[in-house]
Amino acid sequence: MLSAHSKAHVDCVSRVVKNAARLPQAPVPAPILDSWRRSLEQHRLDPGSLQGPRILDQVLLKECRERAELFLRIASEEVGRLHGQVRDADYCVLLADAQGRTIDYRVDSAIRSDCRKAGLDLGTWWSEGEEGTCGVATVLASRMPLTVHKRDHFRAAFIGLTCSAAPVFDPQGELLGVLDVSAVQSPDDRRSQTLVRQLVAQSARQIENAFFMHSACGHWILRAHAAPGYVDSQPDYLFAWDADGRLLALNPAARRYLGQRFGEVPTHVAEVFDPDALHAAEDGSTCQLRGRGDSLALHVRLSVPQRPHRVALRSTPCASELDPRIAENLRLAVRVKDRNLPVLIQGETGAGKEVFARQVHEASARRGKPFVALNCAAIPESLIESELFGYAAGAFTGASSKGMRGLLQQADGGTLFLDEIGDMPLTLQTRLLRVLAEGEVAPLGAARRQAVDIQVICATHRDLKGMVADGSFREDLYFRIGGARFELPPLRERSDRLALINRVLEEEAESCGEPIGLSAAALECLLGYRWPGNVRQLRHALRYACAVCAGGVIQPDNLPAELRGGRLATGEDAAALADDPERQALLDALVRHRWKPGPAAESLGISRATLYRRVNQHGIEMPGKRRG
How far is it, in rounded angstroms, from Cα 28 to Cα 147? Predict the structure, then answer.
């Protein structure tokens, strides 16, 4: 039996459709009314239905995502950026293909359950033939940005939702899909969604432009805007033509522009712009250009044909996807590094300190120069010196006859990343301090010092200030490397866990050579786990799951046992683990690798000797060994 709200909605839809011709003004916009009429008369749907949307099975969803692989990859960054703009207002973002099937989905963990209950989820199919009037379906039919707000929806199941959506077109004017921002709760006034609809339309244009630039990179491309400052970042018009001048691709605005001026789209660029004027623009600088017979001068930039390239997976997320603390740390770290200040990154083991250091390097003025990394805890102490400083020919027994350039020399002009600097022996700390102070390095056995130009980023999970107090770390080196200090939050505290899980899974799946998805139950396991080993443990867990899962979808049984069963220890051990993340990480690694020190040390990124030292420090008793 229908509720009073549902019955009122059914009566409203039926009455408006029946009497639309006699009403002085329809209570809903024309595209909504047209969709109501089709839903009722053509699709014969029930406006009182409370059933949720159709959800694709995993096999069909996988096929849909495979067919839209290029679209997904190009759109991914903008979808994440848009979600970053609207997430604090409790909106989720959906990307649907040209049939209305949700192939990408971004939602904050706090509202995931409510959105799922309302029908907003990955794999939902928003076709007008099945769901009636809704954001995605109505945009597919009207091919224009719009908002379907609450009771604009045809079916009673969706009258609580507000959905603002915009179409995404390919360079030939065909629909690629629909970008949609939806919320479960919102004000009743449709005008409250005006800004959201504008954001969605702007993001859809950005995706169109990115898809255009990728698809047309092997041809001549003209970007144009009425204002000079937007030619590169937000061009109004995009034109592409081949070596013979034949127009091959246009973005929607350029297509409308030519249609209005010529009545139809010309086939040759010389019909639109004077060839001599185009030739003058070939130097790649921004200039003004008038179309034939057009009094309005556009600001343009002409790009010569480039060799097509494959869209690669992003190893570095865009700022909108990052935890706000990490994004702000990254912004500040780049600024101080470019002012020649050394950077010190602190955080738990496996928290992504090297990834953060690489991001700083790639965003800095030295991004084209070498990035050289050394994990001071991962190699024997006896080898750190030769690795760092190198050695001359014949410096010691067993040395290469040609000598070896150390990492300090290899990083000349670029960035040297010293991970786990707290594990560096005191004797080497003295030598490193001298290099940083004087800018010169002396390889082992060499008679002359050599100048090096390096910027240093150091990282540690240790309390260096405490180590200075107990004499195990040099105070002068501590202040030399800590010109700017940044703390990385552990994975369990990061707000971008979902985006990080998706990104790591995508990377591990590509290394397997096939797309792999996550079941809802497996995702809940990943989101609910404490991650004592942080991002490194997450990557290893997903690598394992990708290797053992069948059918292309990871289920809870495919995850390592500790993720399915919660905490591994109980009683006193559990309390100790909760208080000491490093101890918990050691125990987890040892249990996961059946107490084999070699594999456990490798999974933590440390040497066997360092593993034993930390096991003793934390009072962990290895099986088969008794304390004296």
Answer: 11
pLDDT of residue 377: 73
pLDDT digits (tens, 9 = 90+) for 303-318: 877 643 333 333 445 5
Strand ordering across the sheet containing 484-487: 371-375, 415-419, 455-460, 343-346, 484-487
Q: Which two tokens stand for residue 282?
A: 């070939």
Contact 110, 7 (CB under 8 A): no
Sheet holding 220-225, edge to edge: 247-250, 237-241, 220-225, 297-303, 287-290
Answer whether 469's CB lies under 8 Å from 427's CB. Answer: no
Model pLDDT for residues 47-59, shown as the tens digit of each residue: 988 888 888 887 7
Q: How many CA atoms lie within 13 A of 426 on its CB side?
A: 8
| Tokens coding 5 | 């709200």
Mean pLDDT of the chain: 82
Distance, CA of 200 to CA of 187 (rounded, Å):
18
d(CA 167, CA 204): 7
3-state secondary structure 18-46: HHHHHCCCCCCCHHHHHHHHHHHHHCCCC
The bridge status of strand 162-169 relative to strand 175-183 is antiparallel
Question: Percentage of residues in the chain with pLDDT exceeding 70?
Answer: 87
- Above 60 in pLDDT, residue 422? yes
Question: Residue 327 in contact with residue 319, Cβ under 8 Å?
Answer: yes
pLDDT of residue 426: 85
- Sheet containing strand 162-169, edge to edge, reads 102-106, 92-97, 175-183, 162-169, 146-149
Per the structure block, which two tokens stand in for 188?
A: 């009743």
Cβ-contact 266, 274 below 8 angstroms:
no
Query: Nearest CA to 257 among 246, 270, 272?
Result: 272
Assigned token pair, 368: 């084209």
pLDDT of 516: 86
- Residues 339-365: pLDDT tens digits? 888 899 999 988 889 889 998 998 888
Q: By the 8 A CB rule, do 391 and 399 touch?
A: yes
Consecutive H or E run containing 96: strand 92-97
Please count the CA atoms within 13 angstroms of the CA of 145 that sit on its side-chain side.
20
Please report the pLDDT score of residue 569 as a whole number.
33
Q: What is the pLDDT of residue 343?
A: 92
More confident position, 244 or 102: 102
Q: 66: part of which helix (H) or strand (E)?
A: helix 58-67
CA angle at 453 for the pair 447 and 458, rounded to the nearest 5°: 105
Do 473 and 464 form a contact (C-beta atoms < 8 A)? yes
Token code pair at residue 7:
């019955």
Q: Shortest CA distance to 153 belongs to which of 145, 144, 162? A: 162
What are residue 325's phi and psi, to 5 degrees? -65, -40
Q: How far apart are CA 248 and CA 158, in angstroms?
A: 41
Close Cβ partners of 613 (under 8 Å, ≥ 6 residues apart): none
- Whose structure tokens read 């010529």? 262
Which of 90, 72, 80, 75 minimizes the C-alpha distance to 321?
A: 80
Three-class DSSP category at 355: helix
